[in-house]
């Protein structure tokens, strides 16, 4: 039997409903974009060409199971499984023909019903007294043998089982076992039966000949049903028209059984599994068999008896687990399965018309009544008719029944030719209005589609609460509703004298106002404070302390939360007019207005509270502003407050410390100004000069502080304490010891010693004398003054001798002149003898030193004489250290370090590094030597500086001086008439033997032509010039000097930064 074309679109209905065929049947329009005028329900037709009359239909997991009845008695039944999510996965199976079906009983009405579990995996086809099982992977269904001759009229599926009902054998290859959940069956005789079916899938052989061959070979297929157990028989023998099995994880079960006129319920515990082959509902029904428990729920006039269930939205208030609806002759009987102990909240909904419907369907929120040619939908919340439409039936076509998908909640209506779907569009759209009419405000809020609906519900709820006297709750709802206007709500609350609710409402409105609405927030916040002030006064008059504290806490929260919305001056004046200084202070604290708080406590002469407020903030300026008045009235607490703050500038507190005067009548009274100055200087390390000066003045003002004054003037840094000022202050109060110490710190040791001696303090004078460490003579003179004072004070000779032991600068002979002329020195005889013996010892030591010095001088003279015989060998290949040319080419110098230079190269190199003073001396010697040899032929050697006096050289710059030095001229001046020999450990050589030999006629003539004193003077000048030029090896000298030269010059440190 070939199937026609299959289309999952919707076709045009006679009622005017029309939808594009490309929209899937299961695709419900989104509620958010659906028009409000669009009907909640629409009837769509499944465009599937049925090739045989439709006998029964079941729906689950968005799949449809259709049973097609054969047109002829000889043709078998067909099962078609439509997958609405994937049309390509449509399955079709042929039902094997049973012998009773082949009998010519076509005229008798046949009972054909198909049932599908919620997962759409297992199907049962009940044909009269025959029951077939089919799974979509099979080619054809199989007969359930043990249910043969059992007229099954209703089926309900139990909880899924994770383990098989009985131990199963291991299957070869890809085959595997599947099993159904426990199945509860209702029969036409009122019996309740439980069964479980197992099946093998994975390797199907649909060929009947192959199956017969396997049977002939002795291979038998296992039975489908693992057990079939009779549970219970109803009190009447009417057919079971509906079954429902509700269960939970605690193995609690509620079984609802419907017939045409009665509704039964069975509740109790069931077993967890059927592994031992026993039914899981046996224990539940055993209780009803052994005890007379009532299980008849209701008895109504007979009707179709259809039983449907629905799962309401969880947003419903007190939403039940399931809602059960039973179509009786009197109407729709509804009940809720909430705790699985019994059906609750039963109700009977009358039919909207007099005629009786043929079938009953359901959606989560509506009952669907199907008549001969129309459909009506009743809202389950209020039983209102919300939809009515005719069914597009052809002539002679009649409705066979309905099917409800337990997973998706969709409802299907079918005839022998057509399948209709009741398409639901935003089913919860009008639920809020229904709940609002029932005054179920919380439930209505859960289903409000937009803010305007929510505000309307809240406004109605607020009106009801206000009418019931719950003004506080009403104020909360009014604030959330935004309607009616704020003024109307306030007037209503004022008329109801609900002052607490009025404050609550105003506060909620203030919290909800955006911050950019400054004027509105200012008015509401100010008025709210006035309301709180009035309420606070009333509660205080009634002595309700708990209410007063609660109001104060609310006011504090308002002040902290809405401090920016209030106008400070207006708010302060509001609190002052009502005399609420406590709230005034609370507002100042919320604004952190410490200045105003401190000023308030100062005006009230509450010095401790003022200091507490001052300590609670961190602005140093406030300490300075209130320092004078606080120091005057609470010095001890003020000083403690100052000590806790490390950010204070002591110099700015000096005026307050100056105004503080300690008690004059109490000599032991604490000077708190002096106490704070000591803390600031000694602990905090202040270096403010005014603080040091004030502390000095305070210490000097009282004699009991003079010990501290002496320690202070000794340790105070000179850059912080003006020593001259301190001396004047100490002198004014005649604190001479402090003056002595100050003189000593000022390095005026003579004045210090004189003042100390004038006061008779010899020890202090001696200590001051020892301070002059840099001038030994001065220190000795100061000790002599001290000794003179000691001698003239007529002490005993023993005391004088003890005084001499205090220093090593004085001896007995130094103090003898201070004694009178006729003073008996018998007591000093021993000391004088010791002194003379010391002189003798010292003279002997000096003689030994002189002998050692004479021997050293003789040794040095001998070494000098030996220097004339010293020589250095110069190889012919040695080069000049300056010009790198052979050294023996011209006049040369060789140093003990064996470095050699040409005379002119050495002169040029040395003059580049000579200091200005030595350079001027060299030029001066050059001028003098040129002047002495002016009458000789070598006189032009001094031409460069001829005629320039020494004073002119002083005004020349260093560059000009170096330019004036001509190395060759200086070399000629040095080597002219130079004798061979050693001078200051240096020797000058010349390649001209005549210039090195003083016995040559030329040298003799020059020597004889000059006066002896002139020649001697010239030799001295040449020797000094030679010393300047060749005093040390320039290479070695520069190396030693550069070792101590830093890598960077002064001011160039930034250039080295990376």
Keywords, separated by commas or semicolons:
disordered N terminus, 5-stranded antiparallel sheet, 34 strands, 1058 residues, alpha+beta
Describe the protein.
By secondary structure, the protein is an alpha+beta fold. Helix 12 packs antiparallel against helix 13 and helix 32 packs antiparallel against helix 38. The strands form 9 sheets. Strands 12, 13, 14, 15 and 16 form a 5-stranded antiparallel sheet that branches. Strands 2-31-30-29 form a 4-stranded antiparallel sheet, with no helix packed on it. Strands 4-5-6-7 form a 4-stranded antiparallel sheet, with no helix packed on it. It has 39 helices and 34 strands. Among the domains are: 93 residues, N-terminal domain of TfIIb (Single Sheet), CATH 2.20.25; 74 residues; 88 residues, no CATH class; 95 residues, no CATH class. One of its GO terms (molecular function) is protein-macromolecule adaptor activity. It is found in: Endomembrane system. This is Similar to S.cerevisiae protein PEP3 (Component of CORVET membrane tethering complex). It is a peripheral membrane protein.
């Amino acid at each position: 039997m070939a199937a026609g074309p299959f289309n999952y679109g919707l076709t045009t209905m006679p009622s005017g409903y029309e939808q594009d065929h490309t929209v899937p049947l299961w695709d419900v329009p989104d509620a958010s974009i659906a028009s409000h005028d669009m009907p909640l329900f629409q009837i769509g037709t499944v465009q599937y060409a049925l090739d045989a009359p439709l006998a029964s239909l079941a729906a689950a997991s968005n799949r449809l199971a259709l049973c097609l009845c054969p047109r002829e008695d000889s043709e078998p039944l067909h099962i078609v499984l439509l997958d609405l999510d994937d049309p390509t996965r449509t399955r079709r199976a042929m039902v094997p023909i049973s012998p009773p079906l082949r009998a010519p009983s076509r005229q008798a009405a046949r009972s054909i019903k198909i049932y599908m579990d919620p997962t759409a995996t297992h199907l049962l086809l009940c044909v009269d007294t025959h029951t077939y099982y089919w799974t979509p992977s099979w080619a054809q269904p199989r007969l359930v043998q043990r249910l043969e001759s059992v007229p099954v009229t209703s089926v309900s599926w139990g909880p899924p089982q994770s383990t098989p009902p009985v131990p199963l054998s291991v299957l070869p290859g890809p085959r595997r076992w599947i099993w159904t959940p426990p199945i509860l069956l209702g029969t036409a005789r009122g019996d309740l039966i439980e069964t479980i079916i197992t099946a093998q899938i994975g390797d199907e052989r649909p060929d009947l000949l192959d199956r017969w061959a396997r049977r002939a070979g002795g291979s038998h297929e296992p039975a489908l049903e693992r057990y079939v157990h009779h549970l219970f028989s109803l009190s009447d023998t009417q057919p079971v028209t509906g079954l429902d099995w509700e269960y939970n994880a605690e193995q609690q079960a509620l079984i609802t059984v419907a017939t045409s006129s009665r509704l039964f319920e069975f509740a109790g515990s069931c077993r967890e599994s059927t592994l031992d082959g026993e039914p899981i509902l046996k224990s539940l029904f055993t209780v009803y068999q052994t005890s007379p428990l009532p299980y008849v729920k209701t008895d109504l006039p007979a009707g179709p008896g259809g039983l449907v269930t629905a799962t309401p939205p969880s947003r419903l208030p007190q939403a039940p687990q399931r809602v059960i609806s039973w179509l009786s002759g009197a109407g729709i009987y509804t009940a809720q399965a909430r705790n699985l102990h019994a059906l609750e909240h039963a109700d009977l909904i009358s039919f909207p018309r007099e005629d009786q419907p043929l079938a009953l369907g359901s959606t989560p929120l509506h009952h669907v009544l199907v008549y001969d040619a129309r459909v009506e939908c009743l809202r389950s919340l209020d039983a209102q008719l919300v939809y009515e439409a005719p069914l597009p039936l052809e002539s002679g076509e009649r409705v066979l029944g309905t099917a409800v998908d337990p997973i998706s909640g969709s409802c299907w209506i079918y005839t022998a030719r057509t399948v209709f779907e009741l398409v639901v569009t935003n089913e919860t759209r009008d639920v809020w209005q229904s709940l609002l009419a029932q005054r179920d405000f919380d439930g209505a809020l859960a289903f409000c589609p937009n803010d305007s609906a929510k505000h309307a519900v809240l406004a109605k709820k607020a009106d009801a609460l206000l009418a019931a006297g719950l003004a506080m709750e009403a104020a909360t709802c009014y604030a959330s509703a935004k309607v009616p206007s704020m003024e109307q709500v306030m007037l209503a609350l004022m008329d109801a004298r609900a002052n607490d609710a009025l404050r609550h409402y105003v506060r909620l409105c203030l919290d909800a106002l955006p911050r950019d609405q400054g004027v509105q927030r200012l008015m509401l916040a100010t008025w709210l404070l006035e309301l709180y002030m009035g309420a606070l006064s009333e509660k205080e008059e009634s002595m309700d302390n708990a209410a007063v504290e609660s109001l104060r806490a609310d006011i504090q929260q308002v002040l902290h939360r809405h401090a920016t919305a209030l106008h400070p001056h207006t708010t302060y004046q509001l609190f002052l007019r009502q005399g609420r200084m406590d709230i005034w202070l609370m507002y100042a604290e919320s604004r952190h207005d410490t200045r105003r708080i401190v000023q308030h406590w100062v005006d009230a002469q509450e010095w401790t509270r003022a200091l507490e407020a001052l300590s609670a903030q961190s602005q140093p300026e406030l300490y300075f502003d209130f320092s004078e008045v606080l120091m005057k009235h609470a010095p001890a607490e003020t000083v403690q407050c100052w000590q806790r703050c490390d950010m204070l500038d002591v110099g700015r507190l000096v005026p307050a410390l100056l105004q503080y005067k300690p008690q004059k009548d109490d000599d032991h009274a604490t000077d708190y100004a002096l106490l704070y100055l000591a803390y600031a200087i000694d602990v905090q390390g202040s270096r403010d000069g005014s603080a040091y000066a004030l502390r000095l003045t305070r210490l000097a003002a009282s004699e009991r502080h003079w010990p501290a004054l002496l320690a202070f003037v000794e340790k105070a840094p000179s850059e912080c304490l003006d020593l001259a000022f301190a001396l004047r202050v100490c002198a004014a109060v005649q604190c001479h010891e402090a003056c002595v110490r100050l003189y000593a710190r000022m390095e005026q040791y003579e004045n210090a010693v004189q003042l100390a001696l004038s006061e008779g303090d010899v020890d202090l004078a001696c200590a001051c004398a020892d301070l002059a460490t840099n001038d030994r003579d001065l220190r000795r003179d100061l000790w002599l003054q001290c000794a003179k004072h000691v001698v003239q004070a007529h002490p005993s000779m023993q005391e004088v001798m003890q005084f001499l032991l205090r220093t090593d600068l004085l001896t007995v002979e130094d103090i003898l002149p201070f004694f009178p002329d006729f003073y008996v020195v018998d007591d000093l005889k021993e000391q004088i003898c010791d002194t003379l013996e010391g002189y003798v010892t010292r003279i002997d030591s000096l003689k030994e030193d002189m002998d050692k010095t004479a021997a050293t001088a003789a040794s040095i003279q001998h070494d000098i004489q030996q220097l004339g015989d010293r020589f250095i060998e110069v190889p012919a290949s040695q080069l000049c250290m300056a010009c790198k040319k052979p050294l023996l080419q011209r006049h040369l110098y060789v140093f003990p370090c064996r470095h050699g230079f040409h005379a002119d190269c050495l002169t040029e190199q040395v003059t580049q590094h000579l200091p200005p003073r030595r350079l001027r001396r060299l030029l001066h010697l050059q001028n003098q030597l040129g002047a002495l040899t002016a009458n000789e032929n070598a006189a032009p050697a001094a031409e460069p500086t001829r005629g320039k006096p020494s004073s002119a050289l002083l005004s020349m710059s260093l560059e000009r001086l170096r330019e004036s030095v001509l190395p060759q001229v200086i070399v000629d001046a040095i080597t002219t008439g130079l004798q061979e020999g050693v001078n200051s450990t240096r020797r000058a050589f010349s390649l001209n033997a005549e210039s090195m030999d003083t016995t040559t006629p030329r040298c003799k003539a020059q020597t004889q032509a000059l006066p002896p004193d002139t020649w001697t003077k010239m030799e001295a000048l040449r020797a000094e010039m030679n010393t300047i030029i060749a005093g040390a090896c320039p290479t070695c000298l520069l190396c030693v000097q550069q070792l101590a030269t830093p890598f960077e010059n002064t001011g160039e440190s930034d250039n080295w930064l990376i």
